[in-house]
Design a protein that fits this description.
alpha/beta, two-stranded antiparallel sheet, 5 helices, globular
């Protein structure tokens, strides 16, 4: 799949598997590069912690940047709580700002944040979404952090 994606010549965003290290993402990057495509982004989205939670290891940001590609932090999917006893994936959107601030401080070049005016009515991933009205204030804070660390 990575080879076929690379052959398109388009930007390829590879999300790090929740079971793999940032260092091991070198192999995914190499597969795309072998096609002649160097337009690659890696996305950190947390690591499986037990059966029902994810954690973010911020060391993965510089580890993946060492592969010579920009790194994006998926601030919403990294807060998923899969395999809940209810059968519905949960989340912890109260921590989106914390995840985003730490990612910017760690040097992430981009952020992925799902948002919705009313996350409880979202068709997918509502349990992880940031309420739209909170986005502008968060972005202002993130820009101040970015300016402080560059």
């Amino acid at each position: 799949m990575l080879q076929s994606a690379g052959e398109t010549g388009k930007v390829i965003n590879i999300k790090k598997g929740q079971f793999i290290s940032g260092e091991a993402m070198k192999f995914a990057v190499d597969k795309v590069r072998k096609t002649g495509n160097n337009k690659i982004i890696l996305t950190e989205r947390g690591t499986t912690f037990g059966y029902q939670d994810l954690v973010v290891d911020y060391r993965n940001i510089p580890m993946m940047q060492a592969h010579g590609v920009p790194v994006v932090m998926d601030c919403t999917h990294s807060l998923q709580q899969p395999n809940q006893t209810s059968g519905i994936t949960g989340g912890n959107p109260k921590l989106i700002g914390t995840i985003a601030k730490a990612a910017v401080a760690a040097g992430a070049e981009g952020l992925f944040i799902e948002t919705h005016p009313d996350p409880s009515k979202a068709l997918s991933d509502g349990a992880n979404m940031l309420q739209l009205e909170l986005l502008e204030d968060l972005l202002k804070k993130l820009l101040r952090i970015r300016q402080a660390v560059i």
